[in-house]
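Contributing new complexes? Match this layout with molybdenum atom.
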Amino acid sequence: MNAPLRIAPSVCPHDCTSTCALDVEIVDARTIGRVRGSHRNSYTDGVICEKVSRYAERAHHPDRLLYPMLRDGPKGSGRWKRVDWSTALDRVAEAFADKAARYGSETVWPYFYAGTMGLVQRDGIQRLRHAMKYSRWYSTICVALSDSGWIAGVGSKRGVDLREAAEHAQVIVIWGGNPVHTQVNVMQHAMAARKRGAKLVVVDPYRTATAEKAHLHLAVRPGTDGALACAVMHVLFAEGYADWDYLRRYTDCPDELAAHVRTRTPQWASAITGLPTETIVEFARLYGSHKNSFIRCHHGFSRSRNGAANMHAVTCLPAVTGAWQHRGGGALYGHTGIYPLERSLIEGTDMLDPALRELDQSRLGPILMNEPDALGGGPPVTAMLVQNTNPAMVCPELHKVHAGLAREDLFLCVHEQFMTETAAYADVVLPATMFLEHDDFYTASGHTTFQVARKLVEAPGEARENHYVVCELAKRLGAQHRGFNMSAWEIMDETLRRSGMWDAQTNYERGGQDFAYPFERMHFLDGFDTADKKFHFRADWQRFGGRWQEMPVLPDHLDVIDNATAQKPYRLVAAPARTFLNSSFTETPGSLKREQRPTALIHPEDCAALGVANGERVRIGNERGEVIVHAKAQEGQQRGVVVVEGIWPNHAFENSIGINSLTSAEPGWPNGGAVFHDTAVWMKRKD
Ligand SMILES: Nc1nc2c(c(=O)[nH]1)N[C@H]1C(S)=C(S)[C@@H](COP(=O)(O)OP(=O)(O)OC[C@H]3O[C@@H](n4cnc5c(=O)[nH]c(N)nc54)[C@H](O)[C@@H]3O)O[C@H]1N2
Ligand SMILES: Nc1nc2c(c(=O)[nH]1)N[C@H]1C(S)=C(S)[C@@H](COP(=O)(O)OP(=O)(O)OC[C@H]3O[C@@H](n4cnc5c(=O)[nH]c(N)nc54)[C@H](O)[C@@H]3O)O[C@H]1N2
Ligand code: SF4
Ligand SMILES: [Mo]
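Output block (do not edit by hand):
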C-alpha cells in the first residue's frame, strides 16, 4: 500500500490579487499531486482557480529548463550548449562588466516583473541594480495607471474588505474586470452576496463570464468609464442620493463637483459610452438607493490612455453617496498599502542613486530600438538580466521588442522556468525554481493577510532560485550589501523583525498575519490618506508628474484615447484568458486544451458586415502590425468592439506575431502605464 500523502501549506506566487493560501499534496521529495485552496485563509476559503489546482502539470512539465546553457549559434537559432553554473555566471558577469566599461553602468538594465510575487525572489534584482548603478526601473506594465487613479482621490492603496461586502452590501459593482477569469475569489464572494439577495452589476465592454452572472451589465465602449461615472454622479446629485453631511465632512469640494457634473448628463454620457440613457439612469438609481453599495475596481478599465482619470472618477461615487461609511459599502482596488514592510534589505533602496536614468518597462520596444526619447538621453541598453517576465509576449509594440531582442550588440541573460519566447533570444539561459522549490513571503492585494511559504520539494535538474543568481552575480561584480550574504529565509526573517511583524517561523506556523484595520479605519471614518484627510474630487495629478497639466482636475471624460476612425473603425480589447495567467500556463496541456486558439469575439452584425462566418479567419491590424485569428460572433458587446482573449505565444498565430504587435507603447496619462485595451484597428475577412 502507498504511504498516505502529506499535505503541506503554501501560497500561490502568481501575479493575481487573490494570493491564495494553498494545501499541496506532497507525493515524495520531488513530486507534488493536487493543489487545493486552504480554509485557513477566509478569503481563499477553499477555492482556487482551475489552472493552479492542476499545478503538477506545470511543476513537472517535460519542458522545464534544467541546466544553464550558452547560445551556440546565431541569436534565436535554438542551438544551445550546456555548461555548469559557474561558467554561465562568469559569462554574464564578464559581459556586464565589459558593457559597463564601454558605455557606462546605465547601459545595463535588469528587467523583471511579477512572474513570482514573492518579495525576496521577485525584488532582489533591485539590490543588484542599485549596488551596481545600473539603469533604474520604472514599473508601468500593470498598476501604474490604476494606482495613480485610486491614490488621486483616496490618498493610498487600501480599501474596504470584499469579505465584509459579501456579507453586507446590497449592491456589488464589478467595474472593469473579469474575475471569473482573473481572480476567482472575487467571484466567489460576489456570488455569495448575490445568493443572499444583493444585486450584481458588471461594467465591461463585452459579455464576459462574469457579466453573464450580473443583474445588470453595462457594455461600455472601452475607455469611456469616466463619462459613465460622471453621469451617474449627475443623477445622484439631481435625484437626492447625495449625502451632503458626509460630503461636507469628508470631501474636498462637493459644491464644485455638483456644479461640474450638472452638465455631465446621461445623454452626454450616452453619446460617449454608447450606453442607452435609461441604462445609465437605472444603474445610478440602483447604486444610489442603497447606502451600502460596494464597487470592486479592477485593473482592466485602467489600461487606456485615460485610465487613471477613469479610475479616479469611479472612486468618487461612494464619496457622493457616503457609501464609504456604511458596513459593506465603499470600494476596493487593492490592499497593498496596509502592510508595514520595510523593504531595504530586499531591494537595497539604501543604495539607490536618484541621479541615475530611469527606464520605462512598457517601452522596452522603443528603448531597444534606441529611440532617443525612450532612452532618456542616456546610453543604449546593451546588457540585460531578465527574471520573472516574458516581454517577447507581454510587452506592447512587439515588432520593436523582437527586433530589439535580436540585436547582435545586446547581451541578454534570461533566468526562466521554461524556454520562453524571450529566453529563445538569450545569450545565456539559466534554469529557475518554482515557488514550491524555494522560500519566500507574500503581501496580498485582494485580502489583508501577509503569508510566509517554505520550500516543499527539491527543484528538478540544476534549477536555482532568483536569490542565488542575484547573489552570485553580485559576488562576481563586486557589489556590496548585507543582503547578498544572507539566505532568502534570513532576509525574510530579518525584514519581518525590522518591520515589527511576526517572524518568519511564527507567520508560517500560524498560516499568515492579518493586517486589517478596525472598521473605522477600513472605512476612512478617521479620514482619508490625503494631507487634509479628505477624499479628493480635485485630483492632485501633479504629484505623479508627467503630463499632469493636460488632465482634468475634476472627474471627466479625458479624450486622449485611440478613438476609432474611418480607416480603423474597431476598438480592440486584448483581455485576459481564463486558464492562462499572462504568459504563464500557455505551456500546460490543460490550459491549451481549454483556450483552443486565438479568437476574435465580434458583434454578430459586424460579422455580417464583414462577411465573416463563425470560425472563419479575420485579419486585424493597424500601423504597428497585423494578426490573423479565428472569428466568433458574440452578442453583448457594442458594434465596433473586438475582443481577443489571452496573451498567446507568438507561434500560436499564423504569421508568428502575437496580439501585442497591435498594442501601443505610448504611456498613459499622467505619467506612464501600459494601454493594452486602447487600440484602434481595422478588420478584414482573411481570404
Ligand atoms: N486567468 C487569468 N488570471 C489573471 C491574469 C490572466 O492573464 N489570466 N492576469 C493577472 C494579472 S497580471 C492581473 S493585473 C490581474 C488583472 O485582473 P483584474 O484587475 O481583475 O482586471 P482584468 O480582469 O484583467 O480586467 C479585464 C477586463 O477589463 C475589461 N475592460 C477592458 N477595457 C475596459 C474599459 O475601458 N472599461 C471597462 N469597464 N472594462 C474594460 C475587459 O473587457 C476585461 O473583461 O489578473 C491576474 N489574473
Ligand atoms: N495583450 C495584453 N498584454 C498584457 C496584458 C493584457 O491584459 N493584455 N496584461 C499585462 C499585465 S497586467 C502584466 S502584469 C504583464 C505580465 O506579463 P509577464 O510578466 O510575462 O507575466 P507572467 O506570465 O506572470 O510571468 C512571466 C514569467 O515569469 C516566470 N517565472 C515565474 N516565477 C519565476 C521565478 O521564481 N524565477 C524566474 N526566474 N522566473 C519565474 C514564468 O515562467 C513566466 O515565463 O502582461 C501584460 N501584457
Ligand atoms: S486565483 Fe490567483 S492566487 Fe488563487 S490560485 Fe489562482 S492564480 Fe493563484
Ligand atoms: Mo498585471
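Reviewers usually confirm one structural detail per submission. For this one: The chain has a mean pLDDT of 97.
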